[in-house]
């Protein structure tokens, strides 16, 4: 598995919902995003390839994926920005370990709505998040 991480495995959607549920202010949610960013291991320089770099984001972001032998997808990525990296961690949590058809049939951003994060993002961050979601869908479509 390329660039393993805890998101979608030990850190699940339920785990994130439990972390975010007591947070009432955007500042507290913002701090939680920074903490999540710290839990996403940095991507090796060899994986920071131009074909994995996304455009449309405030910060440099890399996102890749691979089909595992069991038919599920493993996603990996990194960002130079802490908030964007925290958003990426949530996106990885929602997509990791699913089959391509599951991802294509769902909304990659559904977890953001459940955590009450999406509506609080600036226009540029929301645009970057949409670019990340589209990349997840492209990767899933490649393996479907």
TrEMBL record:
Protein name stated in the entry: Cysteine desulfuration protein SufE
Record family assignment: Belongs to the SufE family.
Domain of life: Bacteria
Name of one Pfam family that matches: SufE
Fe-S metabolism associated domain residues: 19-136
Active site: 57 (cysteine persulfide intermediate)
Positions of transmembrane segments: none
InterPro entries per record: Cysteine_desulfurase_CsdE, Fe-S_metab-assoc_dom
